[in-house]
UniProtKB/TrEMBL annotation:
<feature type="domain" description="TfoX C-terminal">
    <location>
        <begin position="5"/>
        <end position="83"/>
    </location>
</feature>
<dbReference type="InterPro" id="IPR047525">
    <property type="entry name" value="TfoX-like"/>
</dbReference>
<dbReference type="Pfam" id="PF04994">
    <property type="entry name" value="TfoX_C"/>
</dbReference>
<dbReference type="InterPro" id="IPR007077">
    <property type="entry name" value="TfoX_C"/>
</dbReference>
<protein>
    <submittedName>
        <fullName>TfoX-like protein</fullName>
    </submittedName>
</protein>
Length: 92
């Protein structure tokens, strides 16, 4: 049986540092990440003062879709950034 930590490590784009950050915001499984969504998870990470780039946002979405973050379409990347900016502006 895969432990929750290993489950996240098995996802594309996520290494130990990313998994540790996800644990800090209460994401311990793929299901946790899927329920929270990439945008919300990214914004929660940033709200904790953890410096992450947009690549983290793309990596989280790619992990949910089982694709490398660099293979996300430019339109999807733009949409994710717009959603994150909107969420951050409403919670500021």
């Amino acid at each position: 049986m895969t432990s929750p930590s290993n489950e996240l490590l098995d996802l594309k784009n996520l290494g130990m540092a990313s998994v540790n950050i996800l644990h800090a915001i209460g994401v311990n499984t793929y299901e946790d990440l899927a329920q929270m969504g990439a945008v919300d998870a990214y914004c929660r990470i940033k709200s904790r003062g953890i410096h992450v780039s947009k690549v983290m946002l793309y990596a989280l979405q790619g992990a949910l879709m089982d694709v490398h973050w660099n293979d996300l379409s430019p339109d999807l990347k733009s949409q994710l950034v717009a959603e994150a900016e909107q969420l951050e502006s409403t919670s500021a």
